[in-house]
Design brief:
- This protein is an all-alpha fold.
- It contains 3 helices and no strands.
- Helix 1 runs parallel beside helix 3 (about 60-100) and helix 2 (about 25-50) packs antiparallel against helix 3.
């Protein structure tokens, strides 16, 4: 679950960095990344269960809970990444306005 959180955390600043380098708008980069991250994180959980790193349960309830927690982890990562980016942007604006 931590990898899903970190992935969500990194999507936001990277999408904004692409926009600042003259690429497409941040939302154009963010949305496909988010759509790929969620199934990718769920697949990682499934593969780790097959390899024995995580106990594989055959019940649907366990798989449903794992899928839900993975989506929550990605969403929390996106929220924290957005918050950090807005704080960095606001503080950099404050710094540049004071130095001018």
């Amino acid at each position: 679950m931590f990898a899903a959180f970190v992935g969500g955390l990194l999507i936001v600043p990277l999408a904004n960095a692409v926009q600042r380098m003259g690429g497409p708008p941040a939302q154009v980069v963010f949305l496909p990344s988010f759509w790929l991250l969620v199934p990718g994180a769920l697949s990682l959980v499934g593969v780790s269960g097959l390899t024995g790193l995580v106990e594989l349960s055959a019940t649907g309830r366990s798989n449903l809970i794992t899928a839900f927690l993975t989506v929550v982890a990605v969403s929390l990562g996106v929220l924290v990444g957005s918050s950090l980016l807005s704080n960095v942007t606001a503080s950099s604006r404050l710094y540049t306005s004071r130095s001018a």
